Every structure is written in structure tokens, then in C-alpha cells.
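Supplementary Methods S3. Input chains for the assembly prediction are listed below.
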Amino acid sequence: MVLLSLLAGTVHAATKDKIVAGVVFSGDLPFYREIHEELVRELLEKGYDKRVRFIIQRPNPDALAWSNAIRKMIAYDASLIIVYGSGAARAALYESSSVPIIYAAVYEPERSGITGKNIRGVGYKVPVSSIIRYLRKTGEIKRIGVLYSDSEPSTRTQYMDVKNVCKNLSIDVVKIPIKRPREIGQRLRLMSYDSLLLTSSALINKYFPDYILVFRKKPVPLATIIKGLEEYSVITLSTDPRKQGAVLARNLIKFINNGEIGSIENTALLKNSLTFNMRLAIDLGLDIPVELLTESDRVIK
Amino acid sequence: MKKVLAIAVLSCFVLLSLSTRTDADDMELLIGLIPEQNIFKQIERYKPLAAYLSERTGIRVRLTILSRYGDIIDRFVQRGLDGAFFGDLTGALAIEKLDIEPLVRPVNMNGSTYSYGYIIVRKDSGIRSVADMKGKVLAFVDRATVTGYLFPLSYFRSHGVANLEGYFSEYYFTGSHDSSVYAVLDGRADIGCIKNTIFNNLVSRDPTIKEEIRIIAKSPLMPESTLCLRRDLPEGIKKMIKEVLLTMDRDREGRRILAKLHAQRFIEASVEDFKPVYEMLKTLGEDIETYQYRVR
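Predicted C-alpha cells for the full assembly:
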């Protein structure tokens, strides 16, 4: 007990000794894994790898599992909690108003309500208008389905952004909220749309491949906002997870050095990379716009 | 030996007859294009003009597009070009380095015979001044353009940014003006340097682009794409080409082709048109003779 208290005391000091950082993924996605790998690599490179011990949780992408994971971290008396994605970030904010939280990979954090005195981090913004613009170049778009999750506030922000962009383009936006994995298949089967956009939801990105056969019954293009599903998606416009990881490392090092969450500035990475799956576009009989061929950072042939 | 000699004499005769031909029916002109827009669009835009010129003059006009702006200077002789539609800086460089003369330049749809450069950002980027650009990603077009490189360079210097490397997190060359616009729209770059006419063309096809872009700075007026021809081409040929281009707005077919080029008509061009380019170089302390226009 004494030992635990001592440990707790040294952990909270967080200035000279090793700190314990609880890490909670919003879902076990390659996108988040890449961020974490970059974080670890940067810490190693800058000589901070011995100053932090990570306890990692990759819960199922649902609100209850995120809350449980965060509670475990609080019970473990972690010096801070690192969260990837808006689902885990929101759960962390609900569970504690005092434990320092550092986030990464949260789309438009302020607009999505990921703010507070104990939370700082690195967010991103993907211009959904560009995705819509490129989609329209592949063929006529009249009804775009948007899959999002109410448990992940950033994904609702993305839905609102799509709606805002489409309002002047005579494109109907079909709202497809998802609470459980099996709803993905059900909704894909029942809803009517001529193109589909997956928001950055951990739940949707993790389970969408399980329902790919249902989706493929309709020959419509898919666009995605985070990397990971390029195999199924004609257009992917995504922030770079490695850059998210690098900024996260910088923020964590700051915290290790002074123990002050307030010393970290919120930042947003606006730089994105574009992937065009030309092979899929041909299979779907879509137009191949020159812009996608010339502008894409990666073309899948 | 006699056979070899006979072939050599015959070859000389053929070459001589080719190089001295003046009859328009035998003539072929190879015109170079710079990649102002992506190369597919650029060819698509100029192809009808080449066909129109061929039909009206009897001279077969072929087009070739260079992959980079600077290539038009380096490869003009190598590729045996007879002329080219030069941009602002490539035109000035060509006048200095190649024996060419300006022939015609277009009058834009808005009646202007000049274009200017824009420095653009996304409206939602929060960037409103050079101070906000620190640590951001910058997309130029090519070192061989005023609107896509020299003007922004001069603008940044006048705002205290002398060292691009230290100020921006990254800068790169997109190769064309429309690529710079798309790079900013997609968030692949935070700041883009472009030519207004290409921006306007994109906006005319997709008005939503204008709603997303903020123009931070505008350059002085620069000469529009100018058709220059080799000075040593037969005078009769140059006169004929010029005459057809200057009068093409008088017939329906000509106007249709001009519309594809986003132009009302062509007007006569002169070396004087490139004066603003020399002035821009001067403000940067650059000499056109020694200016390093190649993107390494």
C-alpha cells in the first residue's frame, strides 16, 4: 500500500521520473495503430522512451467500453490519459475532469465538443467539399449516404459538414447513424443512395469490411475520411497518422517535462493526402477524372 | 564509294529543299505548350486552335506539351519547335535566350490582356496574413513563372520572410496552376500561388471553389500566354499565322475556338509586354541572364 502511494506520488509529480500514460484507442484501427507507432518512435528518437510507460486499451468501439477503459486508467492512477479519436476523447472527458487528457486524431475538436481545462491535443480537418467535388467528377451524384456514429461526436460534425456542402449542390444527404455493427449491413441494404461517405467513426471503419458484400450489391462509389479502407474506397482524403503521432509526441514530451496539461497548445493538422482507387473506379464503371489521376498522392491501379 | 557519295549528295539536296521550303502546303509548324493546367486539359484546350490554324493557313500545325515550364526553354531547340505559347517568365526568358519574336496574345473574357497572380488559402484555414502562414505548407507552381513563384517570393520578402525554409514547414512545386488550386482545396497545401485566369476558369466550371478560397494577395499585371515564333521562319508564314489569329473572332468557328481558350480574340504582342516581368526580377535582385529557372 505504502509502495503504491509512493508510486502514485511520483507519478503525479511527472517531472523527473517515469510517468504512466494510459492509452485508449476509439477502436482497433490501423489508423490509430500508426499514430501510436509514430509516437513511440519519436519518443525513442528524442530519448524520452524511458520516461514513460504505456498501458494500452483497445476497447470495442462503443460508449460503454470506452468509459470502462478510461475508468481502468483512472483506477490505475495514470498520470495522464492519451486518447485516439473522438469516441474515447468524449468518454475521457465524461469520466474525469481532473486527469490530464491528450488527444490525437480528433476531427474539428472544438466544434465536436472535445474541449475542457484538462484536455489538449492534435486534431485535424478534412475538407469534405473536396471529396464531394471529386465524387461528382466520377459521375452524377444525387443522394449521398453518410454513415456516422452519435457516440463519436466528430463523426456527427463530419455529417453536418457534408450536409452544409451539399445544400447548394442539389444533392440530398441521407443521414445514416450507426449504433451497433450489425446496423451497418441493415442500413446499407435498406437505404437508398447513389454514393456513400464513411465518416472517421471507429465503429464504422472497423466493421464496414464485414458488410462489404452487402454494400457491393449496389455499384456506387465509396469515399472515406481516414486511411485504412482504400481497398474498398474510390476516394480517400485523409490526414497523415504519422504526422498526428509526431505532434502527439511533441505534446507528450512537453507534459513529461513540466507536468502541466495547460502548457500544451491545441493544434489542428490541415494537411491531407489523397488516394484514388482507379482499379475500383473502372470496376464500377465510373468516369475517371483527370484531376484525380493528376492530383492524387497515390493511385491504386 | 560512288554510291555513298550519291546518297550524301541526295541527302544534302533533300535537307536543303526542306530547310528552304516556303510553300505553306509543305510546311509544318510545331508549337510548344507550357503545362499551365494539367497537360490533358491543356492539349484539349489548344487542339481546336491548331486544327483551325492548319485549315486556314494550309500549314500543318502540331502541338507538343512540355512537362515542366522550364523545359520549354531547354527543349525549344532540341525538339525543333517553331514557336510556343509562353507564359510570363518563360516568354521573357525565351526572348533573351532563344531567337524568337512575340506574335499574338489573347484578350481574356473580361476584356483584360493581362493576368495576375494570387496567393490563396482555404477560408476555413484561419490564415489571413503572412504572419498566420508560419509553419504551414506552401505550394508554388514552378520556378519559371512570375504568378506562380516570383510574385509570391517578392510578396513574402516584402513581409519579412526572406528564408522560405525557416518560415514554412514545407514548400513544393505543383507544376501547374490548377494543381496548386486543388492542393489548397484538398488541404494538401495550406497556401497556393496561382494565376487568376486559371482560377477563374476553374470557378466558372465549379462555383463552389470560390466560396472555399480566400485571396490573400494579388500581383501586378503580367502578360498573358503569348504566342512567339522563331524569328528565322519565313516572313510570309509568320504574317499568315498572325493574320488568321488576329481575325479569327470575326467568324463563328473562330469564336467557338476562342471560347475554349477563354478568350475574346487575339491582339498583337510585343517585347514591351514583358516589361513587368523584368521589373519583378529587378525587385528580387535577379538577372534574367543568370536566373535559375529549373526546378531541381
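Confidence is low (pLDDT under 50) at residues 1-22 of chain B. Chain B is about 40% helix and 20% strand.
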